[in-house]
Design brief:
With 835 residues, the chain is α/β, with parallel strands linked by helices. The chain is built from 19 helices and 42 strands.
Length: 835
């Protein structure tokens, strides 16, 4: 017997007042009937108190439960299933309850081996083997009160974490193992590729490849650099390992990704025919310029090349989507690219590149930059040393803005929430002299925010949040209500933004838009998704002297709204001739002939952030060049441009190239802040990273600590602590299981401040599952030995000879409640039974 809540037994003291109440009761019961009624109530109280204390009756059982785990990963093929079938033919389960588990990267439970055999092996993802996962799944699947046994049919090659053997032992789960020998098949594979971690520009480098073959055969081996084949040779492979060497010379690329491909007619698995490595080239600084008009970048490109910098120019749709692409560059320039041309993932990537990997970011001005480009409240604005909103000047014209938002059923969910967030952001950008109205429409129009001063920000945000989805789509009623809201308002500028994701019922769109134009009201439209009537929205924008936006990504709606709001306000752009004025001397501005600098013709108005540093200002005192540190990197904001619009006079200025080259060199990521070296070495399915560091005096740094920032091929960023093993030496181990390039940054700190950093890359090949490793019999034997199991057990006797027992808990509270119920019935019967 075991009582789980013994504290409840203190309630037995209520029997004393119960006895007192019995002695002094005025109930018309006498003699034995009164005593029997009292005893019945005592029985009820005692039964309830003991039920609350949760008593358990412990018994011993020999009843067994057996789970048979069948490895269906690619390294085993059908061999484990064949072994399991042979095991079943002679197995005596001794009345055990039996279930089967197919596993590889994932596990699935089946009632019979036939059910397992009929299931699609792809359901368990055969590209990996997670022994830790399947053993955990099996442990959780056992029912209590059973003698627990596992039979594992596997080659023991594990691509996951370490199994929790101690948990198996604590639960008395015995693991028997049946080692499986994979079938011999003709197979050729690339085991690994190695090269120096970094080289100087134009320096020759060697690439070493190790190939393995199960038979003597002819093969073609090719070497690729950044996806382009640069070498190919025909060779004869011998049985076992074959070593090859290639040579190459580092060019202008910053990141060199080498891959070796082996091709042979005598081959079974294609996934393991290619592996690679990554090399960093320490050449001149490379800068990537993302621009709305590549032809406008030729002036800056020519000037930087004259100063020894390499500039690559891409349109917005060519912006990097992977960290390994971005790591080819030491700095990046955004030149008049609107936020709506970048995805949220790309903006997050830029944030990681600067903060965790020390890259530089420069934003140039233009009518698509800063707040005008929709960067308000985006990850890119977080990076910049200036804010994309600004305090409007007193003399700036007032704006009356009407937001017409579709609230039909198709807008439900994410689109509606983002539309409301966009409306709030637009309201936040307006000044106290401005006005705002928000109209929601379906088949009718609803003035959610009647025209009012934008200073009522809290009330406006609350009213916007109340918008819910409704029925149909009638844009005309929304336009009519917006026109009613704006008519009579005395703002100098009046603008309407219409957002919808559907096709409207017919309406007088041209007439309504014409009436807006006659009232000096402009109109822009936003179509979300492919279901929107793009032709109608384009026409309304043209008729209303506004702009049309089309997006299939709802996350860009806030950027479009803020861009439109700032464009309509006509106060962000300042266009007049002015001279750039240095605030104070700084190294990257030295040697630039500022006394000869010509006029700039315009800029975008911004606000410097509190901890930023402004180096150049306009004649009105607005920031022209501002920088700050963001994580490990540096970002800068130049609010004019570098093309033949505002900077047309600067293009002929002798200081043009010198200014930009010195600024970009200041911002660019250094190869290392000090004397740190990084070494990489393969250790099975892991990569060992060794960091050797000296301080500026070439001594081992004391009281230093470090960590790794890793960005895997999918873009996920993780932090890995470095373990100090010797003075000036740290190590860390990371898994090498995901194909592609993992970018890494070593950061060493003293007293919480970084004193050194080094960038490196790791190129992963394919899953360990395809490495053609021999069965890991040592692991299988250790697993069986530590849990009390056997290797290659006799299926006819292994279960019948199991002498273990298990404890069975029987909960007694249901029976006690039944006793209490019977006692209550007896009490009522004694009191009601006639004399």
């Amino acid at each position: 017997m075991e009582i789980l809540r013994p504290e409840c037994l203190w309630l037995l003291f209520v029997l004393a007042p119960l006895w007192w109440w019995h002695k002094h009761s005025l109930a018309p019961l006498r003699g034995h009937r009164k005593l029997k009624a009292f005893l019945a109530r005592v029985l009820v109280v005692i039964a309830i108190i003991f039920a609350l204390s949760d008593p358990r009756w412990m018994s011993i059982t020999k009843k067994q439960e057996v789970l048979l785990l069948v490895d269906q990963s690619a390294s085993v093929g059908s061999a484990a299933l064949d072994s399991a079938s042979a095991f079943l033919e002679t197995a005596d389960f001794a009345s055990s309850e039996v279930a089967w588990v197919a596993f590889a990267e994932r596990g699935r439970i089946f009632k019979t081996l036939d059910d397992l055999n009929k299931a699609d092996s792809k359901l368990v993802e055969p590209d990996g083997t997670r022994l830790d996962g399947v053993l955990g799944l099996a442990s959780a699947a056992f029912r209590p009160g059973r003698v627990k046994s596992l039979v594992l049919f596997s080659d023991g090659v594990n691509t996951g974490g370490s199994p929790a053997i101690e948990s198996l032992k604590a639960a008395d789960i015995r693991v028997h193992v049946v080692p499986v020998i994979p079938p011999e098949v003709p197979e050729v594979l690339v085991r690994h590729v190695s090269a120096p971690v970094s080289v100087r520009k134009d320096e020759p480098l060697g690439i070493a490849a190790s190939l393995r073959s199960t038979l003597a055969t002819d093969a073609k081996v090719s070497l690729f650099r950044n996806g382009i084949r640069i070498s190919s040779r025909n060779i004869k492979l011998k049985v076992g390992d074959n070593d090859l060497a290639f040579e190459d010379r580092a060019g202008n690329e910053k990141l060199l990704h080498y891959e070796v491909l082996v091709e042979s007619e005598q081959d079974t698995i294609a996934e393991n025919n290619q592996a690679g490595t990554a090399v960093l080239s320490q050449g001149p600084s490379r800068v990537l310029l993302i621009t709305d008009k590549p032809e406008s970048a030729r002036y800056l490109e020519w000037a930087l090349r004259q100063e020894g910098l390499e500039l690559s120019v891409r349109p917005a749709h060519g912006a990097p989507t992977r960290m390994d692409d971005l790591q080819n560059f030491d700095a990046l320039i955004l030149d008049n690219v609107p936020a709506s041309d970048l995805t949220r993932e790309q903006m997050d990537l830029l944030q990681t590149y600067v903060r965790d990997f020390g890259g530089g970011l420069l934003m140039l001005g233009g009518d698509q930059a800063y707040g005008l480009g929709g960067y308000f409240r985006t990850p890119v604005e977080d990076l910049l040393p200036v804010s994309c909103d600004f305090s409007k000047e007193e003399e700036a014209p007032s704006l009356a803005l009407a937001l017409v938002i579709d609230r039909s059923g198709s807008m439900s969910g994410e689109k509606m929430e983002l539309a409301k967030a966009a409306a709030k952001a637009s309201a936040d950008l307006l000044g106290p002299k401005d006005y705002i109205s928000v109209v929601a429409f379906d088949s009718e129009a609803y003035p959610v925010v009647p025209i009012q001063s934008a200073a009522n920000s809290a009330a406006i945000a609350s009213e916007i949040a109340s918008i819910t989805e409704g029925g149909g789509t009638d844009i005309a009623v929304g336009m009519e209500e917006a026109l009613r809201q704006l008519n009579g308002n005395d703002a100098k500028i009046k603008h309407v933004i219409i957002l919808t994701d559907g096709v409207s019922t017919p309406g007088p769109f041209y007439e309504l838009t014409s009436e807006m134009v006659r009232g000096n009201i402009t109109a822009s439209t936003v179509g979300v998704g492919e279901g929107a009537d793009m032709d109608l929205l384009t026409q309304i924008a043209q008729w209303g002297n506004g702009r049309f936006y089309q997006t299939n990504d709802p996350s860009t709606i806030p950027q479009i709204f803020t861009k439109e709001t700032m464009t309509a306000s006509k106060s962000a752009i300042q266009e007049f001739p002015f001279l750039a004025k240095p605030v104070r001397a700084v190294d990257f501005l030295e040697g630039v002939p500022w006394d000869e600098a010509p006029f700039l013709l315009g800029y975008v108005k911004t606000k410097p952030k509190p901890t930023s540093e402004t180096w150049l200002i306009t004649e009105r005192g607005d920031p022209l060049l501002t920088t700050w540190r963001y994580g490990l990197g540096t970002t800068a904001a130049f609010t004019s441009d570098a093309r033949n619009r505002w900077a047309v006079e600067w293009l002929r200025w002798p200081g043009f190239g010198k200014f930009w080259s010195q600024l970009l060199r200041r911002m660019s990521r250094p190869a290392s802040l000090g004397l740190t070296e990084v070494e990489l070495s393969n250790e099975g399915k892991n990569v060992l990273i060794t960091v050797n560091a000296l301080d500026s005096e070439e001594l081992f740094p004391s009281n230093a600590s470090g960590e790794l920032k890793l960005s895997d091929p999918s873009g996920k960023v993780t932090s890995v602590p470095l373990e100090k093993v010797l003075p000036g030496r740290w190590v860390a181990t990371i898994p090498n299981v995901q194909r592609g390039i993992t970018s890494g940054q070593v950061v060493l700190e003293k007293n919480g401040e970084p004193f050194d950093a080094r960038f490196f890359t790791v190129a992963s090949g394919y899953s360990q599952e395809f490495m053609l490793e021999p069965p890991d019999t040592k692991f299988l034997e250790s697993l069986a030995g530590q849990t009390g199991g056997t290797v290659s057990p006799d299926p006819a006797t292994i279960f019948s000879n199991d002498t273990r027992t298990a404890s069975v808990e029987v909960e007694l509270w249901p029976w006690l409640l039944l006793v209490a119920l019977l006692g209550l019935v007896c009490d009522v019967g004694i009191r009601r039974w006639p004399n």
